[in-house]
Amino acid sequence: MAFYAQHYDLFLTATQSFCQQCDNINRLVDTHVVTKDNEVFLRKFCPTCGESMVKISTNYDYYKQCEAYLKQPDLPEKSLTQVLRGCPYDCGVCPQHQNHPCLALFNVTDECNMKCNICYYAAEPGLGNHRSMEEISQMLDTLLETESEPDLIQVTGGEPTTHPQIMEILQFLKKSPVRHLMLNTNGIRIAEDEAFVKALKKLGAGFEVYLQFDSLQKEVLQDIRARDMREVRRKALAMLEKHNVSTTIVSVIKKGLNDKEIPQILAFSRKYRCIRGVVFQPVQEVGRIKAEGDFRITLSEIRQIVVEDEGNPFTAADMIPLPCDPHKIGVGYAAKTMGIDKEGAPYANLMPVTGQIPKEMITEQRGTVAFEQDRAFVKTIVETVSLDTAMGESILKDKIKTKLFCCWPSFLSPADMGYENVYRIVIMEFSDVYNFDTTNIKRECNFMIEPNRVIPFSTYNMGLSRSQ
Ligand code: SF4
Ligand code: SF4
Predict the structure, then answer these.
(1) Same domain for 341 and 193?
(2) Which CATH number characterizes residue 289's domain?
(3) pLDDT digits (tens, 9 = 90+) for 159-181
(4) Are 162 and 46 in a shared domain?
(5) Which ligand is the nearest neighbour of the Cα of 186?
(6) Residue nearest to atom 7 of ligand 1 (CA)
(7) Which ligand is nearest to the CA of 105?
(8) Shortest-distance Cα residue to atom 1 of ligand 2
(9) Residue 124 belongs to what domain range?
(10) Which residues sit opposite 54 in a β-bridge?
């Protein structure tokens, strides 16, 4: 058995994880969080396989910053399961969970018109199982029991646009108390069906497309998606731009494959008026993805590439931990106005704002995401941001209008600015058998909604909610 006691610097805390070597999700193993050479590791003690170390951060200074950003828990309004076997085997949501559903995923079908190599859900053509309107209504009722005014519902699958009633589902959810609705899609139907895009546009403000976009390279797309998706992406974005449908592009990142492409993806995103930002997601080893360690990448490595990219204006001060789940989500917000590049093509000017907001203004909030209810907070932020005239004029004026996205004010603006003036970079890391720990999992704020339960996204994907 390996013995690492000589080879780490600081012991930070003790928690529990799973052994990635025996891959047994029915047995937690004692785990220490330790540092070595300014990196952070899970040091695991498996009775069968011995000790192992898994890197969870390449930047101990940023790791400490995450701890400093922790805010008071914002709990679900109601638990739906009891504590019986203990975390993580009581998901549903149980009384131990420390975060409410910021983002609720509604899986409306198992069917997909692709078979990606990295699908967490292992979807593929022919699986079918479209959820009925009754089931979706029941899922909404279940969510509303735990969160009466959800910030964000994301309709997903499988590929949700293969569901014959997808517009009915979106219209139904749009009428619910949800603040923001997203459609998570591979873009195939959007590329081909303009009438569908027009119908999406009619859903109005508060609706957004969450579009797969992992690379500009054929080989990378073949590796991740098992298909060259470049033409589909080009057509889909042309369609979304034409109808100005708010869009977030999301890139799954595999180390050594597309991590070096992050600057190009960021630059590409600025060519479109409709793109509100980019989400980077380190690949997880769940679903169809086999356990291989060498393509793993941490949130801190992606953040470093973003802040070292001289082509975008986000600095280390602008890419901060999200207070509700700081180790797992990093965010940076900018005000955006469309300009032109050297060739005269459309290109977004960005003015990052997160670095200008004092940390205390975020972490000292009462345990709520409802920042707009705290007028003093909003006023101070707007005044702070208004000091920046980097774009030639103060773009934030007197009349305050706010909207919220998840645990962070997504948009603070005067009446003459809209959601299209928001741009954000989000790095969102989920848990798998490697980086799982029973402390952080209790803060997860992305939930899969089932007719009778709401389950943290990571434990759902790992099969933990089904392992009993
Ligand atoms: S992950 Fe959350 S909901 Fe699941 S068992 Fe642990 S505390 Fe409960
Ligand atoms: S990742 Fe999305 S598009 Fe790819 S197979 Fe899975 S559900 Fe389908």
Answers:
(1) yes
(2) 3.20.20.70
(3) 999 999 999 999 999 999 988 89
(4) no
(5) 2
(6) 97
(7) 2
(8) 119
(9) 103-351+421-428
(10) 42
